[in-house]
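Same chain as my last thread, 506 residues:
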Amino acid sequence: MLTTIHLDFKMPLGGVAFTAEEACIPAATRSLLRSMLNDLAPISSLPAEILEHIFDFCVSWLYGYLKPKHCLAWTQVCFSWRKISFNSSRLWQRIDLCNPRYADQFLLRSKEAPLSVVSTSPLKLTTDNLALHAARLQSIDVFLFSDDMTHLFSSIGSRLINLTHLSLKVPPTSSPLFLDIPLPCVRRLVLDCVAVPWNNCLDLTHLSLRGLDPESCPSISQLYQLFARSPYLESIRLENLVPKNLVLDVNLTQSFPLLHLKDVVISSEPLVIIALLNGVLLSASTRLQLYFSFSQSLRSIFPHRIPQMKIGHRLDASTVRLSRHSMRFILNKTQRWSEDLSRSLFSISSASHVAIHICESIHHLLNASRITSLELNTGVLFDIPYHHMHRLLATLTHLETLSIAFNDLEEILKLLSAVQPPPVHLLCPRLLEITFSKPADMWWQFADRWLDSIIDLARVRQHHSLPIHTFGFFQCHGVSPATVEKLQEIVPLVKVSEVIAKRGYY
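reply #2:
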């Protein structure tokens, strides 16, 4: 498998530059000599199919992060490479509407191959000959000014019979643009400040909407109908969803199953999110990310638990991560403090602090007995009053691991060591491991402020036959083998930074 490709277009493939005397040789003879030298180069032993595949990588660079200084330079290296390039229609499938120098030639050389249209900037639009090839358009991904976007689709809009991928963006300096175009075969639809007839959308697999005002945004009813026409949706992203005349249908009798959905991202007001999710059925494995501001219990946002649980399944999540402005339910066997969003099944982010409301509602959101790990991100304990943290820890009866980033530890250490009324003697009776700080962070003055309290906690839990088996200190300032000797007398396993020590340090 090819992983690295390096092509030098400055020299002939034979690697020999002709002198001034050799330049006097007739052009035909010089060309023959160059061809002979090229044939001796190791790369010339590659089959034409392999070279064409390499050139296809080069073409992808033209529209990726790497921008070659000389586009299509490989066609100027030698006659053989030029012939291979011109005979391959797939090398000319990507048409940059903002590069009139090449657009027409690409349309010609692509022959009958499906076309992908892009625009690398919203300037220098050329669409003169594109209408003749509209039936070959398979993908359109353009960022254009509104007038240019309108002009483009006025010439090709009625001929897009094979278009499957449509991504349109206009600068957000004016009102969203409405394009009245049919979309019979579009499966992946990405719109930024652009609206289309929503009733024309069907059999979508990916939907992304952004930058729409209330006049252009689809209504909740239109989204329901779109979902009904697209049962195999795999991804939904709705940013700043602001439907006009929001009406909640509390008597909704039909829910639309979207059991193939892998990712749902919605940012809007709580009422909009409630209305939208109230009418869909999601798989228990759907990754749901919500962005909204709220100042109330999540029970009022999700009166019937979170949407994935409507179909009678439990979330396969074992970790809860609380941050000052977000919460995540994370999949089993995920590395501590992982930022991999694909491992998150359900998350809420808000401009306001969410921790208190999560503490009040976590038993309503899911079966708390499934949670075995709790991560408290930087600063979150500053937002949670003592009695709310008590309620949270009392709910997580099966908690086994607790990970705490930079925070004020006074109240949580008191809670974990406080003797509770019978029949519960200590909170979190199954707690076995506590770690402090993230591996990459530095927690200054940690030992001076918290180490004595942590040793007291270990003693109390040991006394009540609910010992902590492991303490981990990652980049905790002042924690060293000499400072945790007392803790090691109580706890079987102590981790300091990345070094693991069993009743000793290495």
